Amino acid sequence: MVLPRLPHVRSRREIGTSLSEINVTPFIDVMLVLLVIFMVTTPLMQSGIGVNLPAAETDDAPAEEGLRLTITPDKYLHMENSLININLLEKRLQEYFWNKPKKIVFLQADETIPFGYVVQIMDIAKKAGVETVGIMTELKEVKDKEK
């Protein structure tokens, strides 16, 4: 049996001029969108937890090392930037300071928090083995008194 002959099919595709340049316009668009996203989100990441600290006339420079505990106006407790239950605070502090030579906590409490609640947090920290508990304040602007 003889197969009929098909019309002539080109065995090679025609190769036109190849494009040797990369189109960078979509790449630039994507980069600009990413740049805007990072510019908007970076300040949000650095702001931390919003509390109104009590004001004091003196200003002491904090130590270089230490853990920051923050109490928000609605009595939520944050260890660095993670939310923590007050019932687990002692255990978490012991885990955090395990094998660390300096055990320093900076307490950053909103000015509307009752003093008894702040003392309760300080007591838990002392029971966990914390050596020093510092209370953070904002510097109060003092008007110069005329003599």
Can you tell me about this structure?
- Strands 4-3-2-5-6 form a 5-stranded mixed beta sheet, with helices on one face. Strands 1-7 form a two-stranded parallel sheet.
- It has 3 helices and 7 strands, in the order αββββαβαββ.
- It has a domain at 55-139: Nucleotidyltransferase, domain 5, CATH 3.30.420.270.
- The protein has 147 residues and is α/β, with parallel strands linked by helices.
- The N and C termini lie far apart (124 Å).
- A hairpin with a 2-residue loop joins β3 and β4.
List keywords for this structure.
29% helix, 3 helices, two-stranded parallel ribbon, single chain, 147 residues, Nucleotidyltransferase, domain 5, alpha/beta, five-stranded mixed β-sheet
